[in-house]
Design goal:
Distance between the termini of chain A: 33 Å
Order of helices and strands of chain A: HHEEEEEEE
Oligomer: heterodimer
Strand order of the largest sheet of chain B: 4-3-6-1-2-5
Distance between the termini of chain B: 34 Å
CATH superfamily of the largest domain in chain B: Nucleotide-binding domain of ferredoxin-NADP reductase (FNR) module
Radius of gyration of chain A: 17 Å
Strand content of chain A: 25-35%
CATH class of the largest domain in chain B: Alpha Beta
Radius of gyration of chain B: 18 Å
Structural class of chain A: mainly beta
Shape of chain B: globular
Strand order of the largest sheet of chain A: 3-4-5-6
Largest sheet of chain A: 4 strands, antiparallel
Number of strands of chain B: 11
Structural class of chain B: alpha/beta
CATH architecture of the largest domain in chain B: 3-Layer(aba) Sandwich
Number of helices of chain A: 2
Strand content of chain B: 25-35%
Shape of chain A: globular
Helix content of chain B: 10-25%
């Protein structure tokens, strides 16, 4: 390994292709085990534990602590759109 | 193992388990097997192309392409009336799964397990109890099963047999008990939950499944009694 490669790398501007590998870590887990953090009150817990209000076209994921809407999952046939509220994060368990 | 997309499935057997619920066995050639507690989605397609999907817990576990569901009829439902009243061996449906990793029992875990079921919430818990029994797990298992009346208990004979063999079983009857039953009839109270479940100091892993209000009440009672919320796993299926 060269000296150059051992030093911390400076930020580089690349594109989303570079994220396929790192985001695969999320895909490797069943979605219900991913840890979701509420941008409102900061509660963090597996997706399986959040409140979901469901109707034939949408699922609204709400914080069990402060009731804030975290995600809206819109369904149209096989198409799925995920809207994520500001400040809400998702991480591997 | 995971699959993606909808898998063709053939219904191979249907058996009534209560006056309003049936056990259905599906053959899913592409099924990769499933862990105890997982669920799947079922999709029905009408002749005019209209499609309806619902999630159902899986009563079976392990390898193989035979998948067992137990479905309780939801009045005015879109999918369950077909599965409980009309579906016959030879009928085709589509399934997606197995799904979920949160509400799953790890058979290698030897910690005490508390199962708490309300009505048809018994299905994923039965998969865990079956796995525990067949594998000869040393994890101590207790089951608390709440039903309206004796006739409403799904898999009653099998659960009684498991209760004699590999788990401690407590019935709760909310409206009517069997003749000669000495217990109290009525909804679960925090005191009855505490009486029939592992004490918090045993650090059990609890799985509670049933209607949302039932699961909320059970989980609240356990946490108030001192159980670690992170070890109280819940699965709510709406309704009352």
């Amino acid at each position: 390994m060269t000296e150059q490669a051992r030093r911390p790398r400076a930020a580089q501007v690349v594109d989303g292709n570079a994220l396929s590998g790192v985001l695969d870590a999320l895909r490797a887990h069943d979605p219900d085990t991913l840890v979701v953090e509420c941008g409102g009150c900061g509660t963090a817990a597996p997706l399986a534990t959040w409140v979901v209000e469901s109707d034939p076209t949408a699922d609204i994921v709400r914080c069990r602590t402060c009731t804030r809407t975290l995600w809206t999952v819109l369904r149209d046939g096989d198409a799925v759109t995920l809207r994520i509220a500001r400040g809400c994060s998702i991480r591997t368990p | 193992m995971r699959t993606s997309g909808w898998l063709p499935a053939t219904i191979t057997a249907v058996v009534a388990t209560t006056p309003h619920a049936r056990v259905l066995t599906l053959d899913v050639p592409a099924w990769p097997g499933n862990a105890p507690g997982q669920h799947l989605d079922v999709r029905l397609t009408a002749e005019d192309g209209y499609q309806a999907e619902r999630s159902y817990s899986i009563a079976s576990w392990g390898p193989g392409t035979a998948v067992e569901l137990a479905v309780d009829e939801v009045p005015d439902g879109e999918v369950s009336p077909y599965l409980v009243r009309d579906a016959q061996p030879g009928d085709m449906v589509e399934v997606k799964g197995p799904l979920g990793a949160y509400f799953v029992w790890d058979a290698a875990d030897t910690a005490p397990v508390q199962l708490v079921a309300g009505g048809s919430g018994i299905v994923p818990l039965l998969a865990m109890a079956r796995a525990h029994d067949v594998l000869g797990s040393v994890a101590p298992f207790r089951m608390l099963y709440s039903v309206r009346s004796p006739e409403d208990a799904m898999y009653r004979a099998e659960i009684e047999a498991l209760g004699r063999r590999s788990l401690e079983l407590t019935w709760v009857y909310t409206r009517r008990a069997p003749d000669g039953w000495g217990g109290t009839v009525g909804r679960l109270t925090p005191a009855r939950v505490a009486e029939a479940t592992w004490p918090p100091e045993r650090r059990p892993l609890t799985f509670a499944c049933g209607p949302t209000s039932f699961v909320e009440a059970v989980a609240s009672a356990l946490v108030a009694a001192g159980h670690d919320p992170a070890r109280v796993r819940t699965e709510r299926f709406g309704g009352t």
